[in-house]
Amino acid sequence: VTRLSLIGVGLMGASFALAARRAGTFDHIVGHDVDRAALGAAHAAGIVDETAPSLDAAVLGADAVLVAVPPSAIAGCVADVCRGLGDANVPVFDLGSVKVAVISAVRERRGALPSNFVPCHPMAGSERQGSTAADAALYRGRRVFLTPCPETDRAATAKVERFWHSCGALTRVVDAEAHDRAVAATSHLPHLLAFAYMARFGNEADRALFDYAGPGFRDFTRIAGGDPALWRDILLSNRQAVAVELDGLVRRLTALGAALGTCDAATLESRFAAARDARGAYVNSAAADPHDGA
Amino acid sequence: VTRLSLIGVGLMGASFALAARRAGTFDHIVGHDVDRAALGAAHAAGIVDETAPSLDAAVLGADAVLVAVPPSAIAGCVADVCRGLGDANVPVFDLGSVKVAVISAVRERRGALPSNFVPCHPMAGSERQGSTAADAALYRGRRVFLTPCPETDRAATAKVERFWHSCGALTRVVDAEAHDRAVAATSHLPHLLAFAYMARFGNEADRALFDYAGPGFRDFTRIAGGDPALWRDILLSNRQAVAVELDGLVRRLTALGAALGTCDAATLESRFAAARDARGAYVNSAAADPHDGA
Predict the structure, then answer these.
(1) pLDDT at residue A294 tops 70
(2) Going by C-beta distance under 8 Å and a sequence separation of 6 or more, which residues neighbour residue B241?
(3) What does the alpha-carbon distance between residue B248 and residue A198 come to, in Å, rounded to a whole number?
(4) Which residue has the higher pLDDT, B184 or A132?
(5) CB neighbours of A94 closer than 8 A, spacing ≥ 6?
(6) Which segments of chain B have a pLDDT < 50?
(7) Which of A131, A245, B146, B227 is most buried per CB count within 10 Å?
(8) Do B213 and A287 count as a contact with CB atoms less than 8 A apart?
(9) Are residues B225 and A276, on separate chains, in Cβ contact within 8 Å?
(10) ipTM
(11) Looking at chain B, which residue has its C-alpha nearest residue A250?
């Protein structure tokens, strides 16, 4: 019997459990969640075979522990899981989209970074929530970044890569700081921008302007529909990298605003052309494949 | 015989011609375009029945004139058409997404605003170009804003509304200044933002970051693929309204950046929640209907 301990039975964790069980990677899944109702629903749906009343009970005898909790709870949960596992050499992995802050906080809580903790960030997601929306195909064809540290056990990293492969995901091992800088640029700043833009339409009178909104508006603002508490946590935990990106963006925007003010047509056109070319390069890159990303 | 004079045989004009001919609104279409090859192609494709070597020849005997040229050429073309038509009470209409600048420039060129000019802005478009991509369904279910001035002949406005209805479009008569402020908020600023954001990925090294881009990035940046010269002209011709929107956005972004810097979680969450709520209101509005907008 290969046992997975699943801490947090939301959509992301439950989808991993479904996919890994189907692949035969795990054949007994023990679930724990601070939300008792969610845990009961996951049990009733057959996502977990067994529920545990506490974290310590959940990880007892586990062959692997997936910490699938909200961003602000990850570090505390990983630290508690590692304490609960004691000397057992059991891989522990998470799903957070920011890695340095979690690694630092776990290191601080445990005194040293546990060698069995393998930080992960799957580029997958859904606007649906909860284990009832779990989808065994959620990670299929998606990229999963692993950001092990020098202290991380290489065998643990290799095991966690195999778990992801069994779910159909593509893994890539990268440096945690480089990862966080990259997602600040490609994901966190766009969310901040979309929120800042959409806040323009805060009251009823402003919403009459929606009559003038077309498909461009619809696509540009889609990510402003994200969960406010989740994005507050993600942006705060990566705030230094986000601030660097934000500064650059405000600088570029200010330059474009100045060019508009002085009717500097050449500058506007050359900046827009550079942006259009970059967009073309993105479309032609593997990243634009609809089966790979989040 | 009801004759339409089509000045400019690009996608927008050719699509109108196709739809209006099918509806029986016009049964003879005379085309003119400064691009002789494009004009020949539109003739060969049966979009126009006859080609005219000059603007004056094109409008001779017309029952209506559609000026479907790029934004920077609209005012000059409308003025020339009105001069060519002389006293003939023939409606002239355009397709530009900015109205005040065109109205002012036509007024200036003609001494007074011609009463037969009915400024229009159809909320439709395509990333394809040219008459070979013409689509009789392009305007079906789409909104078309008409911005007549006090000088505009009410019968001309009514006729142009009927032309649009025959193409399946929904018309709305609005004030030109209110229109331009609205599209600055819902369309022009998002384009400026998407261009400013996407210019971040100007060189090869930055494009390695696309590996970290998911569906959110894809949708957020789609409008950065727009034509640089077209958007240069649109933004310049509506620069005052765009500047007001840009100032507001930079103010909101700066406030969010400050909240990030001081770890002001409550401010971040409340701003994000306001944005999320506005996005929800948009989704529930008629404007989000995929058959209505551009």
Answers:
(1) no
(2) B180, B181, B183, B184, B185, B188
(3) 11
(4) B184
(5) A66, A67, A68, A74, A78, A102, A119, A120
(6) 291-294
(7) A131
(8) yes
(9) yes
(10) 0.91
(11) B250
